[in-house]
Amino acid sequence: MITDPADLKCLGEVVVSAAREELLPRFARVERGRKADGSVITEADLVVQQRIAGELRKHWPETVFLGEEMSAADQQALLHQDKPLWCLDPLDGTSNFAAGIPFFSVSLALLVQGRVVTGIVYDPVRDECFTALCGRGAWLNGAALTAVRAGVTLQQATGLVDFKRLPRELAVRLVTGIPYASQRSFGSVALDWCWIAAGRCHVYLHGKQNIWDYAAGHLLLQEAGGHAMTLSGEPVFVNALQPRSAVAALDAALFDEWTRWLGIGTDKP
Q1: Class for domain 154-262, per CATH?
Q2: Domain residues of the chain, as ranges?
Q3: Per-residue pLDDT tens for 97-142?
C-alpha cells in the first residue's frame, strides 16, 4: 500500500518513465486498430500496459493488476478479489494520440478493499504529474492542489462537457439553453478530472466512463476539495466495471448551481 511520499515518488517514476520512453516516441506514429466495442487501440496501449504491469510487479509483487486492455472476464474476476488492486489505463485519449492531438495521459489507481487510496495521472506532453493519496491531499508536480472559490457564476463558467455519451434530451437542452459561457471537450477522461481539480475549467459533465478512466482522477478532485456525483445523484465511484456518469466542480457553490440546473438533488454525497 502506498502510504508515504517515498512510495508515491517511486510509483510516479514508474508511470512517468513508461510514458516518456514508450508513449512519446510513438506519438502520431502508430497504426490504429479497433476493439470489439469500436474504440481505438494502438501498439502504444499494449506496450505501456505491459511495461507498467512489469514494473509494478517488481516493486509491489503482492498487489494484483487490472488493465484496460485485459479481457472483460479477467477484469471482472480481478476486481472482486480481497487483495489490493492496481487499475491502469495505459493510454487515456487513444484517438487523440493516434491522430497527433497532444492531449492524452496515463492513469493509475490503487484500490484497497474496494476503495481508491492512491491515484496518479501523467500528461507526458506537458510533463504534468497529478498525484493523490486518500485523506492526505492532491498535488501537481509536487505542489498542493486546493479548492478555491472560482469567483464565477454558472453563466460565467467554462464547462468541460462530453456530449457523445449524454442522454439525448440532456444534450439537446445543453445546446439550446446554454447554461455556461464557454464549453470544451478534450478527449481524455483522466485529464478532464485533473483539469477540473486544477481550476482550468469550472464545471464537468460526462455520461459514461469506465473505472480505469475515472478512478485516479476522481480521487484527485476529491482530495483537492472538489465535488462530484452521477447524473442520478449517486457517488461516482463504485467498485464495478459498469460505466458511470459524472457531474463535478471544484467550487462548492458552483457545483450546487450546476447540479440544480441539471435537475440533480444536492442532498446526496
Answers
A1: alpha beta
A2: 5-144, 154-262
A3: 988 999 999 999 999 999 999 999 999 999 999 999 999 999 999 9
Residues 6+ apart with CB under 8 A from 190: 89, 92, 105, 107, 121, 213, 214, 216, 217
CATH of domain 5-144: 3.30.540.10
Nearest to 109 by CA among 40, 63, 46: 63
Q: At 266, is the pLDDT very low, low, confident or very high (cuts 50, 70, 90)? A: very low
Q: Is 41 exposed, middle or buried (0-12, 13-18, 19+ CB in 10 A)?
A: middle
Per-residue cell: 56: 509494478
Instruction: DSSP for 201-245, please give it.
Output: SSEEEEEEE-HHHHHHHHHHHHHTT-EEE-TTSS-S--SSSS-EE
Round to whole Å and give the CA distance between 232 and 57: 38
Are the CB atoms for 185 and 174 separated by under 8 Å? no
- How many angstroms separate the CA atoms of 116 and 87, rounded? 9
Q: Mean pLDDT score of the chain, rounded to an integer?
A: 91
